[in-house]
Design a protein that fits this description.
transmembrane, mainly alpha, 16 helices, Acyltransferase, disordered C terminus, acyltransferase
Length: 388
């Protein structure tokens, strides 16, 4: 996903960049597991370790709200720049790399048609899918042929575009809450996220419940708003939560237990509470200088390229698997090297995309941004409470 804490002014939060790599790896894992058929023990292990990887998207949505808030100052999202320059910056952050990846996905469909001309691939290129993909509005359509069109992962960017449009409204609203009220708001947003499947069950047509809970930008905006509230708590010194080792352990335990939950809850909200602990814990570790494995330079470098990696990995997986075929199970000794090969190739494509397209656009964005110092978190006041 696009937002990166390295885009913000000092103090930097490199642990969040390292965690971006981990979240992208989770998403990659579920797609590799979904497209490489395996059986027996390998299938069961993949179900435990890889199948919940789509919940990495929830992590990205919370992180997006957090890092945009971390970079914002004053009453608006872009003090001294205005909304026009704010949205221009968001355009530079998303679109250059996205359009290159979209062109790659279109080319992959052409290759797939040559390999398998009678294949029933849902995400075919047509005028409707191309239009909704170019303008990143596919998530607003309830049919999976549209919201998974051409490059299926791009539905999440359709949500991000909606989040950016809402940020100038959400940020001032939450910023003016006091510490206690802000903590209550954060807890309420977690609860609302957990209640979304029930809301869908009660008031949404069964044919559209999956779209409402998992795809619809309005629904997923709860996670984005939660990220805003968490960043404000950390920035004000009002955050109260476990340290990074405990928060990481809670998240891992939660992740491994996801498939034991009812599928209605499992789809989006299953790790929301522990994500709400992990992101502030990582940020606080950076601010206080506490030990954090996520600050390792290799993880930060991989995290820097995670957006480009996210954009291209599924295109690579589906193109190769169209050639290899999915009509039979692959033994573990074939499936594991194949998955690792997809990982290496995806980053081999993502690194140049990041270096020559995404990074130059970000340098242009930074030249357009007026430097602003971010003060260290204030000591908590007696009337302030946090989450946790």
């Amino acid at each position: 996903m696009p937002d990166s804490p390295r885009a913000a002014t000092a103090p930097r939060l490199p642990s969040l960049t390292g965690l971006r790599f981990a979240a992208a790896l989770l998403v990659f894992g579920v797609h590799a597991y979904s497209f490489i058929p395996v059986g027996g023990f390998a299938h069961d292990l993949g179900h435990l370790l890889l199948d919940p990887g789509d919940l990495g998207v929830s992590f990205f949505f919370v992180l997006s709200g957090f890092v945009l808030t971390w970079a914002a100052r004053g009453d608006g999202p872009a003090p001294g720049r205005g909304l026009g320059r704010f949205f221009a910056g968001r355009f530079l952050r998303i679109y250059p790399a996205y359009l290159v990846a979209l062109a790659l996905a279109v080319a992959s469909k052409w290759v797939g048609d040559l390999i398998d001309p009678v294949g029933n691939r849902m995400n075919q290129v047509n005028g409707h899918n191309l239009t909704t993909s170019v303008f990143l509005v596919q998530a607003w359509f309830p049919d999976d042929v549209t919201y998974l069109g051409i490059n299926p992962v791009a539905w999440s960017l359709s949500c991000e575009i909606a989040f950016y449009a809402a940020f100038p409204l959400l940020y001032p609203l939450l910023r003016h809450l006091a510490g206690r009220a802000l903590a209550v708001a954060a807890i309420g947003l977690v609860a609302l996220g957990l209640l979304m499947p029930l809301i869908a069950h009660l008031w949404v047509d069964p044919d559209y419940q999956r779209w409402f809970v998992y795809i619809l930008p309005v629904t997923r905006g709860v996670e984005f708003a939660l990220g805003i509230a968490l960043a404000l708590l950390v920035r004000s010194g009002a955050w109260r939560g476990p340290g990074l080792p405990v928060a990481t352990g809670l998240f891992v335990a939660n992740y491994l237990a996801v498939n034991l939950l009812p599928h209605q809850v499992r789809d989006t909200a299953a790790v929301l509470a522990t994500t709400a602990l992990l992101i502030p814990a990582a940020a606080t570790a950076d601010l206080t200088g506490a030990r954090s494995v996520w600050r390792h330079p290799a993880l930060v470098r991989l995290g820097d390229a995670s957006y480009a990696f996210f954009l291209v990995h599924l295109t690579i997986i589906t193109t190769v698997m169209t050639y290899l075929g999915r009509s039979h199970d692959y033994p573990a000794w074939q499936a594991v090297p194949l998955g690792l090969g997809f990982l290496v190739v995806s980053y081999a494509v993502a690194m140049p995309l990041h270096r020559y397209v995404e990074a130059p656009a970000m340098r242009l964005l930074r030249r357009r941004r007026r430097p602003a110092a971010i003060p260290a978190p204030r000591a908590p006041q007696p009337d302030r409470v946090g989450v946790g």
